[in-house]
UniProtKB/TrEMBL annotation:
One Pfam entry name: VPS11_C
GO cellular component, one term: late endosome membrane
Designated name of the protein: RING-type domain-containing protein
Matching InterPro entries: CHCR_PEP5_VPS11, Clathrin_H-chain/VPS_repeat, PEP5_VPS11_N, SET_dom_sf, TPR-like_helical_dom_sf, VPS11_C, Znf_RING, Znf_RING/FYVE/PHD
A molecular-function term among this protein's GO annotations: zinc ion binding
Keyword Metal-binding: yes
Keywords: Coiled coil, Membrane, Metal-binding, Protein transport, Transport, Zinc, Zinc-finger
Compartments, record wording: Late endosome membrane
Coiled coil start-end: 1104-1145
Taxonomic superkingdom: Eukaryota
Family: Belongs to the VPS11 family.
Mode of membrane association: Peripheral membrane protein
Keyword Acyltransferase tagged: no
Length: 1237
């Protein structure tokens, strides 16, 4: 038996791989089972197979442990079933699932929410009836299944307390024996405790006796025991006590068995209350009880109660079982009976409206049947009704009232207006289209369009007439001939008429037994006639679908589909689409709904009777999906014979109803119908649903399975193409998963080509990696390419997919596809161009890679392919000339040296062009030409002045020239050479030039740089190092000479062959600069043994004369200063000892007459007080004398407060030629005295 889950699909796990040999059983438990020996004896009696007792025990043990109770769709137990997969589900006394059965499938159904996810690993169902006390459940599980239960239900203390509780004396809620009520806090009395204990013993004994006896024993006795026990339990046991439930269950079963319906109903209601307390409303166990109560209510004639129960369980049952079949309709007034309002009526014609169908009985009655099976009937004609046609809420009929010689009567009825029990007859018209037409030529067909402005009537001689205008409001109708009967003698009798309205045109189909034609009208004018390929049909073997203006006609060989719009658009189109449905069978009737075509066919009966060897087959096709949706046999009646007054019960004629889905190409349904020999079945549609009026007068409706049920069946049978067609039509979200399953199925069969085509349909819904992994093998690379191409076509590919597709093309060596790939690559989202180029280059496809790089303007990559892979240097230089300068520079940096080697002339031209344009990076040029100095010098000489000033270029050329001179070995340089080199040096490259000059020992450049940088100390040291005394003498920087005089003198003392003139010139320079005392210099010179006194005699004599003059001047200055001191002492004495008279008359600041208050100083200056305060910063000093005093103190004239006196003094001391005289001057001026504040 197969298994499935109502909910999410179960994952593949170990339980799905189980076999019968994997099932567990318990030998000790099995052999001790009371029923085992009985079963073994029965088996031996009825089975002749030689099986030993050990195997029998194993078989019985595995079946007893792993079987489920087999139930029907109303959860009534009808046997046992084994499902090996579902036998792996664990037990729970509080189950999450129940096991139900649909055909040969076991279904795992949730006890709670139907949308809950169920898998074998997570689902739990009850191995036993869980509606028992915990100890009793555990005992049963141990005895039968050999395990101790400790499930969620056993651990649920609240649930267990309710199951074993007693009724509170005060509030009737649950309380334990001797305990306190948790609701009202009332403590159980001792008397009540004793009563509860006694009641418990009685209840246990009763339950054990009932369970032990099973269904054996007299039902009267069982019922009496239960009734007595329930009386004793009343008011003692809690209303939801499980012992009370067990007794109620046995009482309910016994009462039903004894047909005591009233007590059974009472016990059933109490059972329902208890089960609803412990179980979910969706639990199948609860549904089973409700179904039993519904049956019980019907037996008690309580139809409303029965309907209430059935309506509660119906949605759940439909979800679980998918009740889809040809359902016999119940009488709405009495659900216990079939609907048979049309019993013994022969339906002549019918037409369907919105929410109702009009059925015309041959003897003139018309029935309006609504969806709710409400019937309105009236007698439209006294003699016979031939045909009727509906246009919205108006319909036309033709028939015979038996008056005026049997002349045909046309009536138009208004369904919106009723008089008494029939609709209002708007028009009563005796059809008289031609005076020569005989009365016997009856009108047998009629059709009116939806706008009520065209109506056609057909006659027995196949002539057709039409009238155009406001038909429902016209009092008289004017007829025009559309088809002459005399011209259509070979067409057979007229079968039907139908009008299709397309834009402003009318198309009238005329269906006869041997022909089919259509007439196109523009208003009231006939434009043309079309004769179609269908060779006519029998009555009721055609159907018109107004929503799409399509006529469907069937004969013995084919079913034809005529689209009216095609005939309006084309003048020559005559043929129709056709399907070979029911080919070779005699067709009795054809009807359609939205998706299906139903055919009633006549076939030989499988079991022929003495009266007939034929049967009718009703087949319903799905035209779109092209499959048979339904088929069943039905009672056959030969309508050419007079109906029998007394039907025969022995007729073997059968009708088969088959429903085809033509588009999806499958049979949707097929079944045999109730048999009655004298009345053929009649099919019709009501609100796009197919109904069958059976021969016995009952009414059946085709209830289509829900889509998910259809798909499950088709997938189970591996009819993937059909499932896909259905899912497409209904726009099912499962469509893409079906494609995936179909692909998986084909893949397992090794049909990789078709498998990948199914996977291609899943793009956008199934992760591409799932499919790609399956086809990575080299032998399936072509299929992988197809998938990846489709992925790109839908613009759902990512960069990795594009790279993978490219790799696949490379492995297939598909050059053409690679070229197309490059052409279409700009449409690929996330296309990694660089990675693709790398892959092509690595796979030895340089030409393709170069084309791809050129398309995406990867010029550097393109040139690198030419240089590295193709080695086409000429093409590279040619392409390089057309690139912008910045890109040329980038390329030269990488491949310039190689091109210089193979394309030197062209490369020099490119470099010169870059330099001329001025957009060149000199650094790159220098890097390129570093190994070719001649080219570098050439480019420098030919460059413009602006470029020649580039420091990097000048420095590079300078290095080249210096290296060249150094390699020549020349020691004496020509003035031109020195000039050329020195012209390459400027302030911006002094540092580099100096380093190069040192490296290549080019002294003129070193001297020039040091001079221009004013680095005299370094220059002097360099000149000393080189022995250039005359150059030193030419220098006029005394500061540097002062710092280096010791080094100069030391050098002279060590040098041999010293020119005396140079020595004297140097000493004179030192003496004039006062760098050092001559005696110190002479002391140093005395260390040179080669130096003669005569060489420096003149220098010594001149120095002595200069010293004598300096001494004489100093003595003279001393005498003058002594005189000044004497005068100053006299002034001081006068100020200290004598009275000072202040007679100043003018202010020294503003030069105006002096007025009091005034300030007088000993220095003979006077000020207005306000002038003094304005000009003076110090109240004790004369403003006029302050600058002089400051100059005496600070000869530099700067404010000692603003600068450091020490630093100023230090600086003057360093620069002074006579430091001692400077110090004496500072002391005499009071520079070192403290400044008064």
């Amino acid at each position: 038996m197969h298994s499935k889950s109502k909910g999410a699909p179960q994952p593949q796990n170990e339980s799905t791989k189980r076999t019968f040999s994997d099932l567990i059983w318990h030998p000790s438990v099995t052999t001790a089972h009371t029923d085992y020996n009985t079963w073994k004896e029965d088996f031996r009696r009825f089975c002749s197979a030689d099986i030993n007792d050990e195997k029998l025990a194993e078989l019985y043990g595995k079946m007893s442990v792993n079987c489920f109770a087999l139930t029907n769709q109303y959860t009534i137990e009808i046997g046992l079933a084994l499902c090996i997969q579902l036998s792996a589900i664990d037990h729970s006394c509080k189950p999450k699932a129940r096991i139900a059965f649909l055909g040969d499938e076991a279904i795992m159904v949730p006890t709670g929410d139907f949308s809950a996810e169920l898998t074998i690993d997570r689902a739990q169902h009850s191995y036993i009836n869980e509606m028992m006390p915990k100890e009793m459940r555990r005992k049963n599980l141990k005895e039968r299944y050999n395990f101790e239960c400790n499930c969620d239900g056993c651990r649920d203390e609240t649930r267990e307390r309710n199951m074993t509780g007693y009724e509170c004396e005060n509030c009737a809620n649950c309380v334990e024996i001797g305990g306190v009520c948790k609701v009202c806090n009332f403590k159980m009395s001792p008397d009540q405790t004793d009563l509860c204990n006694l009641n418990k013993e009685m209840a246990d004994a009763t339950v054990n006796a009932l369970l032990k006896s099973g269904d054996s024993g007299k039902q009267e006795t069982r019922l009496q025991i239960c009734q007595k026990a329930l009386e004793v339990m009343e008011g003692v046991l809690y209303k939801y006590n499980i012992l009370r439930f067990i007794v109620l269950r046995h009482a309910f079963a016994a009462a039903i068995s004894l047909k005591e319906l009233t007590p059974a109903s009472k016990y059933g209601s109490e059972l329902l209350n208890i089960q609803q307390f412990y179980q979910s409303p969706n639990d199948l166990s609860l549904i089973s009880l409700k179904y039993s109560l519904a049956n019980l209510s019907l037996r008690r004639n309580s139809k409303s109660t029965a309907l209430q129960y059935l309506n509660e369980i119906k949605p759940r049952l439909i979800k679980i079982y998918g009740l889809n079949t040809l359902v016999v309709t119940d009488d709405p007034n009495d659900p216990t009976k079939k609907f048979n309002a049309f019993k013994d009526l022969l339906i002549q014609c019918w037409t369907s409206g919105k929410g109702y169908v009009l059925l015309g009985e041959r003897k003139g009655a018309i029935f309006r049947l609504s969806r709710d099976l409400d019937i309105q009937a009236w007698k439209a004609y006294q003699n016979q009704l031939y045909d009727l046609s509906l246009a919205e809420d108006w319909f036309a009929t033709v028939g015979d009232d038996g008056e005026d010689g049997g002349r045909s009567i046309l009536k138009i009825w208004d369904l919106n207006r009723w008089e008494k029990n029939s609709p209002f007859c708007k028009l009563y018209h005796r059809i008289s289209v031609n005076r020569k037409m005989p009365v016997t030529n009856q009108a047998i067909a009629v059709s009116i369009n939806q706008a009520h402005n065209l109506m056609v009537v057909g006659f027995t001689d196949t002539s057709v007439f039409y009238t155009y205008g406001d038909i429902v409001n016209e009092r008289s109708l004017k007829w025009k001939s559309l088809r002459e009967g005399a011209n259509a003698l070979g067409d057979g009798s007229l079968v039907g008429l139908k009008i299709a309205t397309i834009n402003n045109y009318f198309l009238v189909f005329v269906i006869a037994e041997n022909s089919l034609s259509s007439h196109i009208l523009d208003g009231g004018n006939v434009l043309r006639k079309i004769v179609h390929d269908a060779k006519g049909c029998d009555r009721n073997c055609w159907y018109f679908k107004p929503e799409i203006n399509q006529l469907i006609v069937t004969n013995q060989e084919m079913v034809y589909f005529y689209d009216a719009e095609r005939f309006i658009e084309s003048d020559s189109l005559e043929n129709a689409r056709c399907q070979a449905l029911g080919r070779g069978s005699d067709k009795l009737q054809l009807v359609c709904d939205k998706n299906h075509v139903a055919l009633l066919t006549k076939q030989p009966a499988l079991i022929p009777s003495s009266s007939s060897s034929m049967m009718s087959i009703l087949t319903i096709y799905d035209v779109e999906c092209k499959y048979i949706a339904f088929s069943c046999s039905m009672p056959f009646r030969d309508t050419t014979k007079q109906p029998a007054l007394i039907p025969s019960s022995s007729s073997s004629m059968m009708s088969i109803l088959t429903i085809y889905d033509v588009e999806c190409k499958y049979i949707a349904f097929s079944c045999s119908m109730p048999f009655r020999d004298t009345m053929p079945p009649q099919t019709f549609t009501l609100d796009d649903e197919i109904y069958v009026l059976n021969s016995d007068g009952s009414l059946s409706k085709f209830v289509e399975k829900p889509l998910h049920a259809k798909l499950e069946i088709l997938l189970k049978k591996n009819l993937f193409e059909l499932a896909i067609a259905l899912a497409k039509r209904h726009k099912s979200p499962d469509l893409y998963s079906i494609y995936g399953k179909y692909g998986d199925s084909l893949y397992k069969k090794g049909d990789f080509e078709n498998s990948i085509r199914q996977y291609m349909e899943t793009i956008g819904f199934i992760e591409p990696s799932y499919v790609i992994k399956k086809f990575l093998d080299g032998t399936r690379i072509a299929q992988l390419c197809l998938y990846l191409e489709h992925l790109h076509k839908k613009s759902l590919a990512i960069g990795q997919h594009t790279t993978l597709l490219l790799s696949a093309y490379i492995k297939m060596n598909a050059t053409d596809k690679l070229q197309k790939f490059i052409d279409d690559s700009d449409t690929f989202p996330g296309f990694d161009v660089d990675n693709a180029i790398k892959l092509l280059r690595a796979s030895d496809y340089p030409k393709v890679a170069s084309r791809l790089s050129l398309k995406y303007k990867r010029t550097q990559v393109f040139l690198s392919i030419l240089m590295e892979d193709v080695k086409d240097y000429a093409s590279a230089t040619k392409f390089l000339r057309n690139l912008p300068n910045d890109q040329v520079c980038q390329f030269i940096e990488s491949y310039g040296s190689t091109l210089l080697e193979f394309q030197e002339k062209e490369m020099i031209g490119i470099i010169e062009k870059l330099i001329a344009d001025g957009n060149v990076d000199i650094k790159q040029i220098l890097k390129l030409l570093v190994s070719r100095p001649e080219l570098l010098e050439h480019i420098y000489n030919s460059a413009e002045e602006g470029l020649r000033q580039d420091v990097r270029l000048r420095t590079a050329v300078l290095e080249h020239k210096l290296r060249k001179l150094a390699s020549s070995g020349e020691k004496i340089f020509s003035p031109l050479c020195i000039t050329e080199i020195l012209d390459l040096v400027d302030e911006d490259n002094f540092s580099e030039a100096f380093q190069l000059a040192q490296v290549y020992k080019f002294s003129p450049l070193i001297i020039m740089v040091l001079k221009k940088q004013n680095k005299i100390d370094e220059l002097l040291r360099f000149l000393l190092q080189e022995g250039e005394i005359r150059e030193i003498l030419k220098m006029d920087n005394e500061e540097s000479l002062k710092n280096m005089w010791i080094e100069l003198i030391s050098y002279i003392t060590k040098k041999e062959n010293l020119d005396p003139d140079d020595l004297v010139a140097l000493l004179e320079k030192l003496k004039n600069s006062n760098f050092a005392h001559p005696l110190v210099i002479l002391e140093i010179l005395s260390r040179n043994d080669l130096l003669k006194v005569a060489d420096i005699k003149d220098y010594i004599m001149r120095w002595l004369d200069q010293q004598n003059k300096s001494i004489s001047e100093s003595e003279k200055n001393i005498q003058e200063n002594e005189k000044k001191l004497v005068e100053m002492e006299k002034q001081i004495e006068n100020l200290e000892n004598n009275v000072q008279i202040f007679q100043m008359s003018k202010c020294s600041a503003c030069d105006t007459t002096l007025q009091v208050p005034a300030v007088h100083f000993l220095c003979k200056h006077a000020y207005h007080l306000n002038c003094f305060e304005s000009y003076s910063d110090n109240a004790k000093q004369c403003p006029a004398c302050v600058p002089t005093a400051e100059r005496i103190r600070m000869p530099s004239g700067k404010d000692t407060k603003g600068q450091s006196s020490y630093q100023q003094f230090q600086k003057e001391l360093e620069n002074s030629t006579d430091p001692m005289s400077l110090i004496s001057e500072y002391i005499s001026r009071g520079a070192f005295e403290p400044i008064s504040k």
